[in-house]
Fold Zinc carboxypeptidase A 1.
Amino acid sequence: SLNWESYSDLPAIEEFLSELAAAYPNLMTHSVVGQSYEGNNMNFVKISTGGSGKKAIFVDGGIHAREWISPAFVTWLIRELVENYAAHPQYVDNIDWYIMPVVNPDGYRYTFAANGDRLWRKTRNVNEGSPCLGTDMNRNFGFHWDEGGSGDRSCQGNFNGNFPFSAIETQIVRDAISSVASQSVVYLTFHSYGQYWLTPWGYTADYPEDYAQLYDLAVRAVDKLTAVYGTEYTIGTSTNVLYVASGGSDDWAKGGAGIPYAYTVEMRDTGTFAFELPADQIIANNLEVWEALKVVAEDVMAMY
Ligand code: 0X9
Ligand code: ZN
């Protein structure tokens, strides 16, 4: 198993997923739903006790390669739900969890490679006619794509791709979400850094019509998060508390796939270590964010 005392590379994460699924076949299914540009696996986990008609939460991590705390949290969440099932069976008995811990595996590997770049953000696809590689998956989703805050040039760090869903990884995440969208009521995508609990929209300063509900749940979730170690999060729409950035996965999950409670969670820290959050903060980060997720799960259970 992983220990969350250091950051795990892609092979270690894949081994963890396979072993945990093999050990808990009645709770966890691990599948590969496609290959990235460079041929790495797109890993997909379902955590469920079976049955039909259950509501679901979709979780992803690792859209941005350098945000190592994201796969570190999402893998820990998988472990908590599966290995620690008996401590809180209600979260799996009543909710199906669909989880993709590393949706940008090429980029993630590149941040670990000796001749790579620890601060790489994008995917690693060749852009025709350009020396620069990669697409920012979080500018590549097809809901109000290219309407602000995204790059049109391939050498930019926030390059939105040549068309919506141009990156194979974005297509695979789209299809995975679409396949369970009708039962999903929450979409959570984990990033760093800044300590923000963000709601749509990222393409406009306008508020979603159900913003009051999105905000209310976020406040209660963040209250529990902060209660653990005093870590403070800012809550609001991406555009209004962070910046305009169109083509994000959260905007598409809500506006395109119709999942009402879509959030981007920017975890620790606020800039001291930024993307290079020391590994000795992984467990504390995960414990506090887990408290927020319990609030989200309780709300989902109250929706029946
Ligand atoms: O810019 C982003 O993609 C996210 N911040 S990060 O530092 N992790 O890169 C924020 C995305 C918020 N959501 C949307 N703008 N839709
Ligand atoms: Zn990010």
Remarks:
- The domain at 10-301 is CATH 3.40.630.10 (Aminopeptidase).
- The pocket of zinc ion (ligand 2) is lined by residues 63-64, 67, 191 (CB under 6 Å).
